[in-house]
Every structure is written in structure tokens, then in C-alpha cells.
Amino acid sequence: MKPLSLAALVAFSALSPLSVSIAAAEQTVDAVQARQDAFQSIEKLSKSANSTLRKNNVDWSSLQQTSQQLSAHGETLLASFDKGSEGGKAKADVWKKPEKFERLMLEMNEGYQELLQASLEQNSSAAKSGLDKANGTCKACHRSYRSRW
């Protein structure tokens, strides 16, 4: 029985690195999918917020809800670009030279926080300013950090 146990132990120890690398790969896929989902939601929600703000009678309740969702997705993204989560449409510079990328992500989140605060205060011009700030960082980030394929 001992030779079998020893053989099982050897087999397990040989497979352990494989199972660790499979788990790491699954985690990376999960991180990539989470940020792609967040970016897609942000795109839709930003359009919705913009549309709401263009109306004569702004639906502040709807804008508050949209703003909260945008802020939540922004927070998700801040935590979704850890080392080891490379992949998706993001260029390698996100991880190699993260300073500008992280600054843009923080600015995006600041814009969403300003939008949320303005929606709570029912201040159209401040809400538009916050949304414009966030949307401006999207464009700058895509030019620098998003791969076309």
C-alpha cells in the first residue's frame, strides 16, 4: 500500500503546478471578463446619463441611480488591472507603465463622483461637467491603452 501512496503523492505534486496555473488562468479570464463587462456597462450608462441631461426636465432619480452604477463600475475597474491579469483589449503598457493609466482611471472615477454629487444636488451644469470629465478620460485612455484587436 505504501508504494501506491507514494506514487499518488508524486503524481499529486507533479499536477499541483498545473492546477495552480489553471486556476491562475481562470482568474485572469475572470478579471478580463469583469472589466470588459464593466466597460460595456459604462458605455451604455454614460449614454443614458447624457440623454437624461439633455432633457428639459431632468429625471433626477434616474440620473442618481445611473450615477451610482457608473461609480460602482469605476471602482470595479480600479481593482481589475492587477499584475497577472493581462489580456483582453488592454495594451501591455497598462501593466508596464501604469502611472498615466491609473491617473486616468482615478480621473474617470472623480468625474462619476462629481456626476453623482451633482445629481443629488440636482445641478445640471455640474452633472454635465462631471460626465464630460469622465468621458474625456475614456477617450484619452483608449488612445493610449486599448488595442484595436
UniProtKB/TrEMBL annotation:
SUPFAM superfamilies per record:
Cytochromes (SSF47175)
Matches recorded under InterPro entries: Cyt_c/b562, Cyt_c_II
- Which controlled-vocabulary keywords does the entry list? Signal
Taken from the record, one Pfam family name reads: Cytochrom_C_2
- Keyword Nucleotide-binding included in the entry's annotation: no
Q: Which domain of life is it from?
A: Bacteria
Q: What are the recorded GO MF terms, alphabetically? A: electron transfer activity; heme binding; iron ion binding
On whether Ligase is a keyword of this UniProt record, the answer is: no
> What residue ranges are annotated as transmembrane?
none
What's an example GO BP annotation here?
electron transport chain
- In the UniProt record, the signal sequence range is 1-23
Q: What is this protein called?
A: Cytochrome c
What lineage is this protein's organism placed in? Bacteria, Pseudomonadati, Pseudomonadota, Gammaproteobacteria, Vibrionales
